[in-house]
Amino acid sequence: MGPSRIVAVRHGESQANLAHARAGDRPLVYERGDHEVTLTDLGLLQARALGRMLAGLPAGEAPEEVWCSPYLRALDTWKAAHETWGAGALPVTVDERLRDQESGDFARFNLAAIGERFPGEVRRMRAEGPYAYRPPGGESLADVVARLKDFLHGLRAAADGRRVLIVAHDSVVLGLRHVMAGRDDADLADVLRFAPVLNASVSVWRAAGGGFEVVAFNDVTHLDPA
Length: 226
Hints:
By secondary structure, the protein is an alpha/beta fold. 37% of the residues lie in helices and 15% in strands. It has helices at residues 15-23, 41-55, 72-85, 111-117, 119-128, 141-158, 170-180, and strands at 5-10, 65-68, 92-94, 163-168, 202-208, 211-219. A six-stranded mixed beta sheet has the order 3-2-4-1-5-6. The radius of gyration is 17 Å and the shape is globular. It starts with a strand and ends in a 7-residue tail after the last strand. The mean pLDDT is 94.
């Protein structure tokens, strides 16, 4: 019981992604809240490329329903992809459990800015590791995995036998890989070797033997290299 196929997509390049890339190792305080961040022009192009990829899928592989993060950059990615795809109306569910990993008090800061203002937190981050570290008011990757387990449990009945598209974030895609592999949470750090999950990348699982097997992960061959 459960979905026959799951396609998970990270949103296209966001304005925050671009700001962080431009800042590099320099401190950055980004003014918008995480849920308000929109796509760049490149991000929209990537979302449209995703739509063309979806339009080219065989009928037996095309998604039949969509589950989306509530954050604007994910919703905008789906909107642009759907318009380009040209598919008819699909059931779309916005689910809070697909939101990005919450950074809490540090949501507007890059690592350099955190180190400048809260050096003790950077030391704690390095000591605990990125999968276990929970910033003040935020989440660890283990917290993300916990809510994704709950999401996938509900999806077993809600999307039984159906092909599902998930539009979300890098932490969600990594968390899904860990959960669907059936790995013990003690092995959670191992999933970080598959990072970074790229903007507008596509990861695919199919049902097999009562679980899921990876068909593709972090695939960006549908994007124009230019």
